[in-house]
Amino acid sequence: xxxxxxxxxxxxxxxxxxxxxxxxxxxxxxxxxxxxxxxxxxxxxxxxxxxxxxxxxxxxxxxxxxxxxxxxxxxxxxxxxxxxxxxxxxxxxxxxxxxxxxxxxxxxxxxxxxxxxxxxxxxxxxxxxxxxxxxxxxxxxxxxxxxxxxxxxxxxxxxxxxxxxxxxxxxxxxxxxxxxxxxxxxxxxxxxxxxxxxxxxxxxxxxxxxxxxx
Length: 214
Fold this sequence. Notes:
This protein is of the alpha/beta class. It has a single domain, classed as DHBP synthase, CATH 3.90.870. It has seven helices and nine strands, in the order αββαβααββαβαβββα. The protein has a nine-stranded mixed beta sheet with strand order 7-1-2-6-3-5-4-8-9, with helices on both faces. α1 packs parallel to α5 and α4 crosses α7. The longest helix has 16 residues. The C terminus is likely disordered.
C-alpha cells in the first residue's frame, strides 16, 4: 500500500496522519469525525479553546459543507482561495462548532493550493482538520524530518511530499466590521487585504450596474 493510500485509510478510520500541504507539513484528522479531531488536539498538546482550521478540497466543497456563509464571506473566499490563507469566517450554522468552543459562530477555513500527494488525500476526504505538525511553539516543519518524533509516534500514517514552502498560512479574521490580519504568513498581508477589499467592492456593486469603461 502506498503512503497516500495508507494515509487515506487511516484518516477514514479515525486515526491521525502527517501530510504535506501547500505551506508546511500538517497533523490531520477527518473533519467529519469529532473524536478524531479531539485526538489531534491531544496529540499536539493543544488546548481545545484554541481554534483549528478546516481544510477543504475545493471552494465548491467548502460552500457545500458550510452553505450558510454570508455573501460577503463567499466573495472573500473567491478572492483568496485556493491559496496559503486561513480565513476566519462567520459561521451562522455553527458547523464544526467543537473546533472553536469559545466562538462556535466563527470558523477557520482553508482551501490549500496543494498538488501531489496532499491533493490526493484532501480530494479523497473532502475536508480535514489540520494544524502544523509541530509541538506548541516549535518551528514550522518544512520537510518531513522537521516533524518531532513524539508527534510522529501518535499518527497512523506519514506522507512525504518533499520540501515545502515552510511559511504558515496568512490568517485573516473577517467576522468583524473590517478585515483583521491575525498572522502574516506565506501571502503578504498587504496583498491579502487588497484582494479582500476588491472582493468587497465587487460585492457592493448594484446588480446589473455597469462600471465606467465596461
